[in-house]
Amino acid sequence: MLRTRCAFRGICWLAAIAVFGWCLAQPAAGEDTPDKRAKQKQADKGDEKKKEDQGKDKPDFPPFDKVGKDHEQIPAPEGSFWKLYHHKKTDHLLAVIPKGMLKKNFLLATSIAGGPRLAGYMWGDRVVQWHEMDKKLVLIEPDLRYKPGKKSEVGDVIKRTYTDTIVLATPIVSKKDDDPVIDLDKILKTDYAGVGRVFGGSVDASLSRYAKKKAFPKNLELAVDLALMRGDQGGTRARVHYSISELPQNDYKPRLADDRIGYFLTAVKDWTKPHSDKTIFHRYIHRWWLRKEDPKAEVSDVNPDDQIVFYIEKTVPKKYRRYVREGILEWNKSFERAGLRNVMVVRQQTDHADTFADLDPEDVRYNFFRWIVSGRAFAMGPSRSNPLTGQILDADIVFDDSMVRVWEARYARLAAKGPAAEYDPQLSEFLANCPEWDFVPLGQRLLPKSYSVSGVDTSWDPDLLEALHEHERKAGFCMYAQGMVHEMSFGHAVLAATGNLGDSEKFIGQMIKQVVTHEVGHTLGLRHNFKASAWKSLEDILSNRDESVPVCASVMDYNPAEFALDPEDQGNYITTTVGPYDDWAIEYGYRTTDDEYKTDEELLKAITSRCAEPGLDYATDEDTMFFAPDPLVNRFDNGDDPIRFAKRRLALVQKLMGNIQEWAVKEGESYNHLRKSFDMLLSQIGRSSRFAARYVGGQYVHRDHKGDPDSRDPFIMIPAAKQREALEFVIDNVFSDQAFRFPPELLNKLAAGRWGHWDSDAFDSMQEYPIHDRVAAIQYWVMFHLVNPYTIGRIYDAELKVPTDQDALTVPELMTRLAQAIWSELGHEPDQKCTNRQPYVSSLRRSLQRRYLEIMIHTVLGRPGRTMPADAHAVARMTLQKISAQIGEILAGGQASNLDDFSRAHLDESKARIDKALEAEFRL
Question: In b/e form, how buried is each residue of 515-526, taking b as 16+ CB within 10 angstroms?
Answer without folding.
Answer: bbbbbbbbbbbb
